[in-house]
Every structure is written in structure tokens, then in C-alpha cells.
Amino acid sequence: MAIAARILVGRKTRLVIREAASLANVKSRMRRILMRWLYPLVDQVVVLTDYMSHELQGALGLSGRKISVIGNPIDVDRIRALVEERVESQKTNSWKPYLLSIGRLAEQKDFSTVIKAFALLCRDMDLNLVILGDGPQRQMLEELVADLGLTARVHMPGRVKNPYPWLARASVFVLSSRWEGYPNVLLEAQY
């Protein structure tokens, strides 16, 4: 929209856009065509990774000079301070040890695979699974948990303001996304 507005206004203002997802996620043929036509008209495209830069150069024919790679920042000091805060649920002590997965309950995050894999894993181990987040697949995931007989071991407290104490107390962090532009949560889980 910003590119089209720049064209319609007719003013030569500097325009920098940010592309946050891989082109593999662009399913619309029309959107790809528009990107191929319009992206060369901007002054700079900011992407999150070198891979995305190469992708735009190859698929859209963008010059490498028009692309800047700037990853999302991670505030390590803030994360370490937030880890010390109290976990929002008192039940977490009864859930230990637990695997943790975080994200929007949507197709992209693929929590159904996490739940199915957990069902196999917990046959031989005394584990729990905690999934933090909310979204359109909540009901479907809750039904899957019930169908697999895991309601006592899979906990879905919803979206929490501060996931860092949960991360610090988890035995394992699981990232199951089918795709990510830049997996901030994976980087943050290291701290």
C-alpha cells in the first residue's frame, strides 16, 4: 500500500519497507507478481536474515544494494530480569517436569504435531506439556488432547504477559513452527 501511495502522490519521498516472512509463505501468485513489480520501486527493503535477502534477489530480481539485513534485537538483560518474576499459575509446581511450547494457536505453529509427539513420548516418561498462547485452533487442540487421553498432562493456560519464568523452569523448549520469519522465541529461550 505504501508503494502504491508513493506512486499515486507523485512525490519522491524515501521509502523503506520491511519484509518479515520468507517468500515460501507467500501463497498468492498475484501478490508475488505485485512484489516483483513494486519492490524495485522502493529505496530499501529490510529483511530479517541473509536467506531472505538471497530469496528476494533470486525470486524478485532485487539488487543486493537495495536490501539490508537487520535481525530482530534480543534484550538479554530484560529477559534475565523478567525470569525472576513469579509464574502466573500456582499449578506449575505440579506440572514439573514439563516441556514448553509458546505461540499463537494457529496452523503455522503446528501444535497438533507437538501434542501427538508428546503422546508418544510420555508413554515412557513422567512429563507434562505446557502450551502458552491463544488463537483460532484452541478448541481443535483441546479436542485432540482429550482424544489422546492427555487432559491431565497437557496444560494450556492461554496467553501470559511474561513467558520467561515459564521458559526458565521448563525442562525442554519445543519450537514446532512450520515456518518462521525470524524465530525470536527460540533465541529468547536460550536465556
Explain this structure.
The protein contains 8 helices and 7 strands; from the N terminus they run H-E-H-E-H-E-H-E-H-E-H-E-H-E-H. With 191 residues, the protein is an alpha/beta fold. The strands form 2 sheets. It has a 4-stranded parallel beta sheet with strand order 6-5-4-7. The radius of gyration is 21 Å and the shape is elongated. The protein starts with a helix and ends with a helix. The model has no long low-confidence stretch (mean pLDDT 90).
Short description:
With 191 residues, the protein is α/β, with parallel strands linked by helices.
Proportion of helical residues: 25-40%
Main β-sheet description = 4 strands, parallel
Q: Please give the alpha-carbon distance between the first and last residues.
A: 38 Å
Beta-strand content estimate? 5-15%
Shape field: elongated
* Strand order in the largest sheet: 6-5-4-7
Radius of gyration over all CA atoms, rounded: 21 Å
Structural class: alpha/beta
Succession of helices and strands: HEHEHEHEHEHEHEH
Average residue-wise pLDDT: 90
